[in-house]
Amino acid sequence: MNIARSAGRVSANWLIVIAALAAAAGLWFGARLFTTTTPAPLLPPLQAGMAFPAPREVPAFELDRADGGKLSQADWRGRWTIVFFGYTHCPDICPTTLASFGQAWKKLDAAARERLRFDFISVDPARDNPEQLARYVGHFDKDFVGATGSDEQLTALTRALGIMYAREQGEAGSYTVDHSASVLIIDPAGREVGLLRPPFDASQIAADLQTLARSQ
Questions:
Q1: Are strands 62-65 and 145-148 parallel, antiparallel or unpaired?
Q2: Listed residue (63, 66, 64, 68) closest to 130, CA to CA
Q3: ω into residue 130 within 30 of 0, thus cis?
Q4: What is the spatial distance between Cα 129 and Cα 149, in angstroms, rounded to a whole number?
Q5: According to the model, what pLDDT value does residue 173 have?
Q6: Is the pLDDT of residue 4 over 90?
C-alpha cells in the first residue's frame, strides 16, 4: 500500500512537470506566432500624423495637371506623396494649409524633397482651370503640383480615399465647397496609409516630412 501511494505521488509530480512544460511551450509558440504575424507599422512616429490600421489601395485614376500633363496612380509610387483636396477660391482652410506646407517645404533639405511630393487636387473644376491652378499652387511653392478633373473622376477618387466634398449654393449663382481638411499620406508603394491633421504648424510639419523622407 505504501508503494501504491508512493507511485501515485510520483505520477502526480510528473503530471505537474509535463503541464508546466506544455504551458511554457504554448507561451513560446504564441509569442512566435504573434511576432511573425504582427504587421510592420505603416508610418514612422509623427507629431501631426495618424496611421491607418491597414493600408488603403488607391484605384487607377487620371487627372489633368496644371502644367498640361496628367496625374495618375503611377505618380504616387516611388516617393512619399502628400495630397490635399481643396479649391483656389477657398476663403480659409486651403490658403492656410498650403501656406503651412509651403513654409515647411522650404525647411527641408534637398535630399528630403527628392523623397517627397505635394499634390493639391482641386474639387472645383468649373473655376480652377490650368492657369488658375498653376498661379495658385505656384504661389506657395514651385515644386507643388496642381491637378483637377471632372466631377465623375473626382468623386470616384475621393470616395476611394475617404475624402468628402460638397458644393453649397450661395446668392446670385455663387457657391462654396465644403471639403475635408486633413492631408493624406500616400506611401512609396502608392497606398494611402495615414493622414496629417490640422491645425498645421510649419515647424512640426517640416519635422514630420523629414521623418517620412528618411524612412524606408
A1: antiparallel
A2: 66
A3: no
A4: 10
A5: 78
A6: no
Grid cell for residue 48: 501631426
Q: Which three cell numbers stand for residue 203?
A: 515647424
User: Residue 41: its pLDDT value, please?
Assistant: 79
List all residues 6 or more positions away from 49 whose beta carbon is below 8 Å from its beta carbon. Answer: 43, 185, 194, 195, 196, 197, 208
- Beta-bridged to residue 83, according to DSSP, are 119, 184
Dihedral sign of CA atoms 201, 95, 136, 169 in order: positive
Of the CA atoms within 13 Å of residue 131, those in its CB half-sphere come to: 0
CA distances from 69 to 52, 63, 122 (A): 31, 9, 15
